Amino acid sequence: MPDVRLASSQGRWVLLTTVLGSSMAMLDSTVVNVALPRIGRDLDADLAALQWTVNAYMLTLAGLILLGGSLGDRYGRRRIFVVGVVWFAAASLLCGLAPGVEVLVAARALQGIGGALLTPGSLALIQASFHPDDRARAVGLWSGFGGVGAAVGPFVGGWLVDGPGWRWVFLLNVPVALVCAPIAVRHVPESGDGTRHGRFDVLGAALGALALALVTYALIEAPQGSATVVVAAVAGVGAGVAFVWVERHRSDPMMPPDIFRSRQFTAVNLVTLCVYAAFGGFFFLAALQLQVVAGYSALGAGAALLPTTALMLLFSARSGALADRIGPRVPLTVGPLLCAGGMLLMLRVGPGAVYVSDVLPALLVLGLGMVTLVAPLTATVLGSVDTARAGLASGINNAAARAAGLVAVAALPLLAGMGEEAYRSASAFDAAFRRAMPICAGVLVVGAVVAFVTVRALPAGCRKPECLRHGSVVSPPLEGQGSRGRLGE
C-alpha cells in the first residue's frame, strides 16, 4: 500500500516533481500558438509550416499516450516519467536551437514522444505514492497547480516572445527538467504493475500514429493539389483501417474494440471529437487573429486568452458537482452551445478591436461553455464503462481529444480558404478567420445535438473523476489508476 503522507517532506517533493513534469507538457500544448507569428517571420515559414509546428507535437503525443501509460505500468512509473522529462527537455533544446522550420517540426515531433511518456506518469505517480487518506487532497493540489500553470502559460509565452524571443518558449523547459528529474530520482518512490506481462501493442500505436500523420499531411498540403496528397490521403485511410483490424485481432490491444460496445462511451467520445476539434481550431487561429489582425503583441494575445482557462480553474469543480445532481445530458448539451456562441462573438474581433468590448465577452462566453461541459464529459467517460476500465477509457478519450485538435488544425485553414501566406496579410487572414469561426461553431452544435440525443444518466456507484480542477483547453483531464483500475488496464 502507498504510504507517503502529504505533510511529509517526501510528499511535498513528490507533488513538486509531478506538477513540474505535467506543466511542461501542458504549457507546450498552448503557449506555442502565441509564438507562431514570430516563428513564421524569423524562419520565413508559410502557414503550412506553422500548422506542422503545432501538429507535429500533437501527432506523436496523441498517437503514443496510451502506450506511454502502459510502459510506466510495466517498467516503473518513475523510470518512464524521468525518461519522458529528459526526452522532452532534450527535444525542447533542439526546438530552441532549430536553424530552420524543418528541424523545428522534427524536434516538435520528438517533444510529443516525451510528452506521451511523462503525461500519464505524473498523475499515476501521485496515485501510486500517497497514502489513501491523503491521495484525494494530493490529486486536488496537483490539478490545481497544473491549472494555474495552464492559465499563466500563454501570458508567460507572450512575454518571452516579446522579450528574449520565441526560442525561449522552448528553452525554458530545460532548467525545469534539470530541477524535476533529479527530484524524481531521489524522492519519488518507484511503482508499477507487476501483474502486467502481455505484449505491448507497438504495431497498433504505430498504425494509429501513421494514419493521423498521413491524413494530416493530406489536409495541410491539399492546396497544392498534387498526386502526393491523394496518395497520402488514401494511405492514411488504409492505415486507419489496418489499425482497426489489428486492434480487433490482437489478444491485448492498446484500444480494445469491445470498450465501444458501451453506447454511452461511444456517444461521449463523439461529443469529445466535436468539442475538441472546435477548441483546437479556435485556439490555433485566435492567437494569430489577435496578433495579425487586431495588432496585439504576443504578450497581449497571451494575456487576452487567460479568461477561458481562469474560468475553468475556478469553476470546473462546481460544474462537476452540479452535473452529479442533474446528470450529464444538460451540461453536455448546453456547454457546446455556449462555446459556439462565444466563437461567433469572436467575429467582432477585427482591426483595432477593443479588448473589453470585443474580445473579452467572446472569451467569457466560451469559458463558461467550457466550464459547463468539461467536468461532466470526464465523469460520463468514466461512468460509461466498468470501474476496472475507467483509466483506459480516460486514456482513449484524452487521445481522441488530441487527435481531434490535430485534424482541426490541419483542416480548418483549408475549409476556410486560408492561403499559404494568409498570416502575413491582415485583410486576408481576417477574411478567412470570419469563415472559420462559423465552421467551429457548427461543429460544436453537432456535438450538442449528439449529446442531447445519446447521453443518459450515469449508473449509481460508477467511478467519479479525481481531477476536479482542470485548466487545459486542448484535452480533457487524463484520469489514472484511481482507487480501482489503471490507465491502460
TrEMBL record:
Gene3D superfamilies for the chain:
MFS general substrate transporter like domains, Multidrug resistance protein D
Q: Does the keyword Iron apply?
A: no
Subcellular localization(s) per the UniProt record:
Cell membrane
Q: Which residues cross the membrane?
A: 12-36, 48-68, 80-99, 105-126, 138-160, 166-188, 200-220, 226-246, 267-288, 294-317, 329-347, 359-383, 395-416, 436-455
Checking CDD domains in the record gives: MFS_MMR_MDR_like (cd17321)
Q: In this protein, which residues make up the domain named Major facilitator superfamily (MFS) profile?
A: 14-459
Q: Name one Pfam family in it.
A: MFS_1
Report keywords, A-Z.
Antibiotic resistance, Cell membrane, Membrane, Transmembrane, Transmembrane helix, Transport
UniProt topology in membrane: Multi-pass membrane protein
Show the PANTHER family listed in the entry: EXPORT PROTEIN, MAJOR FACILITATOR SUPERFAMILY MULTIDRUG TRANSPORTER MFSC
Record-linked NCBIfam families? efflux_EmrB
> Under which name does UniProt file this protein?
MFS transporter
Q: Which organism is it from?
A: Streptomyces nigra
